[in-house]
Amino acid sequence: MSNSAFDQKIQDVFGEFAIDKGLVRRLGATGDDRHVPSYVMDWIVTHNAKSGQSTGSIERAVRDFIAKHLPPKGEKERIRFLLSQSETLVLLDAISVTVKLGKEIRYFATIDCLDESKALIDPSIIEQNQALLQGSTWGAVKICYDGSPEGGGIRIMDFKPMQTGRISLDVFRECREAFTVEEWLDLIVRTLGYEPAMYAETEKLWMLCRLIPLVQNRMNLMELAPPGSGKSYLYNNVSRHVWLTAGEITPAVLFYNRQSKSPGLLTRFDVLVLDEAQSLRFSNVAEMQAQLKGYLEQGVYARGECRATAECGLVLLANIDLQQQAVRRYKNGKPMFAPARPDYIRRLPELFHESPTVDRFHGIIPGWEIPPFETQQQADGLGLKADYFAEVCHGMRTAPDMAHGVRARLRLAGSKRDCAAIERLACGLAKLLLIKPDHPRFDELVVHPAHELRRLVRTQLHALDPQGYSPVLQIERFESLIQRGTTLGRISDYELLEEIGHGGMASVYKALDTRTGDVVAIKRVRTEGAELDERAIRREIDIYTRLQEIPHDHLLEVKAIFRDPGSYALVTEFAEGGSLWDLMGGDMADEDRVALDEATVKTISLQVIGGLVALHENDIVHRDIKPQNVLQCDDVWKIADFGISKLMNNPVTGYTFQGAHTVPWAPPEQIEGATAHPSADVYAWGRVTAFLLTGKTAKDAVRALPKPWKDLLTPCTDVVPENRPDAGALQVQLAKIAC
Predict the structure, then answer these.
(1) pLDDT grade, residue 521 (50/70/90)?
(2) In terms of domains, do 632 and 698 share one?
(3) Which of 44, 142, 156, 337 has the smallest C-beta neighbourhood within 10 Å, fewest atoms?
(4) Range of the domain at 260
């Protein structure tokens, strides 16, 4: 397809979300000392281009706008002088806010173009724009000089953030259907500011891999490349949800500042990029390494009194020593580079020379496979507006992903880290390409790059520790296990791969659905010779049968139920992310636990209460809500294990296992054998939420909570069931708590 035909297709399909990248490049705010991200320039062009205007008119309008509202830092004294003359100005800039707590609470804003860090700002503006508290936010800022005697200075009168209109992922997916996968890859490359015709397909795929952390939660990547390959440029321009930094990194900056009690960068953005990683300096290397290993593995960190989870991905960018290859060449005809030494990971600071730390990175992007950037490779045609594409990527992180379909296609067994890394990398690429596992090029465009990204991690692990790590991926397909007869048996269409739990009459297995390729969990309960009566068996089967009719994001999905003369089996989705109990440190003593931060607890507890609302609306009482029974599936928390649950309106099952309970989560009336009622789940939910907030399992943990949480949870843990609120009311009240 010719460039003009491709441009017309982009315009026809995406309409107002398409933009001339060549025009934006020509109008860029260059020649001064200001960096204006691409997504900001796209916004400026969009808001100054009128329908039917000539290119020349648009250029003049944009340049006039930049001159008036986007001054270079060299003009900061002129701006200050105008303010001193009682003028009110509107600037376009990146603004952030800090809160100073003392005898008097004060709010200060940073205005980059004026090198101003103590601009006055009213809390009402902050309340309407809370993103200002999380980092620099671009927008239109209205300022004046405040000469009041109690503390004058530059004052922010109003702030309007740059915002893309509400996006629809469904519409975006529909637009994707108009393009072949090759055209779609070219469109993304053009959107990033590069001309796709200047790159080979493999080069474009490696460029695409840079975006995986933008669409997939908590992806940890390295890119090791020569200078000038465009890696820093991309992350600095692609999205307001990405933060790039360099220099000295401290635990306070990265995780949590114990003095100011403020969360670090990992809690504020979708992706944190550490640039020039070969020159990074770390204060307190031992603490940083320990914190990083915990965060890279589970997305959890604990520092001082703060324990929190985050979904931010971590990307390291570093320049390494390279040598030219005699035979291989880039698309532009120039000789390709390759690492000058096999252990190129040693170019990074010593903190990253420890193999367990490196093993927690999902992949290494071979930046040497991407040609160094040259002017003629800049985009010269239509692409998507950068701010629009950034919000689409941000939305994809929390949208239902393609994990089940990708896992079913991969069917991987072996090293847990290798399997998880390849699955997550493949999910990210599948999201970006919007390509389904049945596409004829799925393996070529998704699976093979994911394997290679992880294989490169393996080569560096072997270079660091030849005895401990093989350079070869430690994975195989499930089919190989089945052919060798090394599985644990079969139940109907499910091949049992490994036992993952055992207790009493039940065993839990990780299994493969041989029809779909899905990885599932199977709970198999022996009934022959066991002390189970028919009512108990019917009760559990009835519960799981009802659950099959209640699809809900926060209830573990029930896939199938089997019954034979000697046992019965329950098939559910497989929860690979562990439980809330694991997140809180498992069986460690209460005095050694660290509580989660309030924002993390709110996120988790809203998901759990949402699941309870669905259960209670369908007349099911769980009766065993506890941290061990809340499991993580693809970054979503779900209620599991309905072994002692009850259908409220079923007389056959209403009194079976009446006194069953788990201390300390069950309410007093359940321990005494009272009839099942939803208020029991509310009590347990309150106790679990207090546990997450304090790290303590004792009931009096509620008393020590901040007032909003205490007001929420005290009624939940009332000993009188009738005094407890219902789950729906709690869901509404919890959503209103500010964190």
Answers:
(1) very high
(2) yes
(3) 142
(4) 169-398
